[in-house]
Write a structure and sequence with these properties.
One of its GO terms (biological process) is proteolysis. Probable carboxypeptidase. Belongs to the peptidase S10 family. By secondary structure, this protein is α/β, with parallel strands linked by helices. The chain has two domains: 289 residues, Alpha/Beta hydrolase fold, catalytic domain (Rossmann fold); 58 residues, no CATH class. The protein has 14 helices and 13 strands. It has an eleven-stranded mixed beta sheet with strand order 1-2-3-7-4-8-9-10-13-12-11, with helices on both faces. Strand 12 and strand 13 form a beta hairpin. Helix 4 runs parallel beside helix 11 and helix 11 crosses helix 12. The protein is globular, with a radius of gyration of 21 Å. The relative contact order is 0.14.
Length: 469
Amino acid sequence: MPSLQWKTTALAVALLQLITLSMEAVESSSSSSLSALDRIHQLPGQPQVSYQQFSGYVTVDVKKQKALFYYFVEAESDPASKPLVLWLNGGPGCSSLGVGAFSENGPFRPSGKALVRNEYSWNREANMLYLETPIGVGFSYSSDSSSYVAVNDKITGMDNLIFLHKWFVKFPQHRNTSLFITGESYAGHYVPQLAELMLQFNKKDKLFNLKGIALGNPVLEFATDFNSRAEFFWSHGLISDLTYKFFTSTCNYSRYVSEYYRGSVSPTCSKVMSLVSRETSRFVDKYDVTLDVCISSVLSQSKVLSPQQVTETVDVCVEDETVSYLNRRDVQNALHAHLVGVNRWLVCSNILDYEFLDLEIPTISTVGKLIKAGIPVLVYSGDQDSVVPLTGSRTLVRGLAEELGLKTTVPYRVWFAGMQVGGWTQVYGDILSFATIRGASHEAPFSQPERSLVLFKAFLEGKPLPEVF
């Protein structure tokens, strides 16, 4: 009997084939006018730029009026020659617009009532497409509130696939453009799963010119990723020797999270986590253990990965400017955005009921399938992140390389950004790469924008990271 995953993939492919047939006439006659309707003429407070911006909705389910919101920024120069990059933030349930575009690697960052230019925007190297997904995140919505219930990885993957297919109807000039998918945190699920669906679809109708994926501090294998947290805490002096012993032998972090999302935290795990929480302190940002007390809740995109902190109040010294900006009526009008079923735009959705136990689905095996299909993969880690530490990611990448029989082609070494060491890297078989970004948080482009841009450029060009400054 075919597996549920196979059935889901087959359903998605069949659905898209029907969409292809039903939209051929529309595509041939009105694609240019469709994209023109989404053109952003000027964002409030925006500095003058020479490139174009677009934003708006793509309906992924007509019956339930499920519509995903996107923000598209053309490359700074010669966009026709630059690749297309889809960026997805994690959570699950956090905004690629508010986190990715306006806090990390987009062209602008809010400052007061205006926008300031991000010198290290990724649209210097690519056409950037930011998607608010799943349904219920940011400006994305459904007219049927049941669409927000029991959302899972399979539903999200299918919606994302349909979105991208229909987005190409609006922007047919990018259909043959080299496509890369990038993201961070829980996008360690979103990105490989979407890429796998693309490859399945391409077997019937080659639409997606997928050239590679990049995953930042990603959740790839629940136990390995989460349980590397204990050693990171201990090695950085955040917990005592005794607590480290309890955290590795009495109740590890994957057990605690599993119990938490099943609604049955054991007294043993509760006691251990109380020790860990007290010693690590609520005044240390777990997503960047070197960050001072002024903690940006832009990092709340990963609150699901740290459930014991969900009820804590965190400083919004950076995020509040993004929230204020995106809740302005004139900004929403300029973005062609509207709120449905909610009163305010939020960084992370409070109406989405996601199947958090999907955390336990390993996606490292999906990454392996992509590599076997010839798709290059980069896994990178901000090295100050204790939520999904570099040690777990490095272990998983090395294990996958061994499983696939990939030999080291670039030995473990430093790489440079400007006059400084940008991090460390190792490459296997010229198709699977691991890299750290020195001094970076869970959201690497937020905390180390220049180094992140150097890494991004090398990834797009398929070149090793710079060996010299």
